[in-house]
Q: What sequence folds into this?
């Protein structure tokens, strides 16, 4: 099976589409395929809110330009929803309801037939309450329909020469808060400051998990090696504390770690 050909086959019958476009690899591949198949009958739409990490909008704009798809920016206000701010295990459901209502309005205004997401086949095996919101709003998942998981999506991104083909996943900032911790603008901003500071140090794959005065910094394997030295660890601790945290732990990155019971990785050094 040719993954790109299969994805394009799924899109051929779609008259026109709004692509939920975060600028991540999954949504970028859907946007690129939609542009190839639908031309000007496709638009990539990026939603901006307090939960969007610094730099992500600029990145999305750059990828949209590289793809050659029209790009629109909208504002979502999931923080106005008390069920979202409560941050229960269904937080993503309430976030996606807000998103898909806004994107549905865009599609209606433009007279476009469908709203497409970047969910892939591997997402079906994870805790994804946002998929329920998608089903309620008639959102389609072309990658799922084509049977494509993360590996195939990355391969398509490389084949198409997308500038973000190797970009690590970057879910919304609220995903850094344990369930039950209220989602507040100030907390999201604190997480964002810490992560932006770590990126300025050169770390690439990372999360800053928020536990009040404690930040649990998760780093990908290459970044963790750097942070496992005394000098590297102190640099991480300094910039994270500068964002307002008192205590800093460093451990190995695991996507969706707040959905799991984790054991900290010991760090070399005093």
A:
């Amino acid at each position: 099976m040719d993954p790109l050909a299969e994805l394009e086959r799924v899109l051929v019958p779609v008259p026109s589409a709004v692509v939920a476009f975060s600028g991540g690899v999954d949504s970028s591949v859907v946007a690129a395929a939609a542009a190839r198949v639908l031309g000007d009958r496709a638009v990539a739409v990026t939603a901006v809110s307090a939960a969007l990490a610094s730099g992500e909008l600029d990145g999305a704009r750059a990828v949209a330009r590289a793809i050659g798809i029209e790009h629109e920016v909208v504002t979502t206000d999931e923080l106005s929803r008390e069920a979202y701010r409560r941050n229960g295990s269904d937080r993503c459901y309430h976030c996606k309801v807000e998103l898909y209502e806004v994107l549905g309005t865009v599609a209606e205004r433009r007279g476009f037939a469908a709203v497409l997401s970047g969910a892939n086949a591997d997402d079906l095996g994870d805790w994804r309450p946002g998929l329920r919101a998608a089903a309620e709003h008639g959102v389609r998942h072309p990658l799922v329909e084509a049977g494509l998981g993360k590996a195939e999506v990355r391969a398509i991104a490389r084949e198409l020469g997308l500038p973000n083909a190797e970009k690590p996943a970057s879910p919304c900032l609220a995903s850094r808060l344990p369930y039950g911790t209220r989602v507040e603008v100030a907390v999201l901003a604190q997480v964002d400051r810490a992560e932006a500071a770590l990126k300025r140090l050169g770390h690439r794959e990372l999360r800053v998990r928020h536990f009040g005065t404690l930040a649990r910094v998760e780093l990908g394997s290459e970044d963790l090696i750097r942070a496992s030295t005394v000098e590297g660890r102190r640099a991480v601790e300094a910039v994270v504390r500068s964002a307002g945290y008192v205590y800093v732990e460093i451990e190995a990155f695991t996507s969706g770690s707040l959905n799991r019971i984790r054991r900290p990785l010991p760090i070399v050094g005093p």
Notes: Residues 261-270 have pLDDT under 50 and may be disordered. Residues 23 and 241 are 29 Å apart (CA to CA).
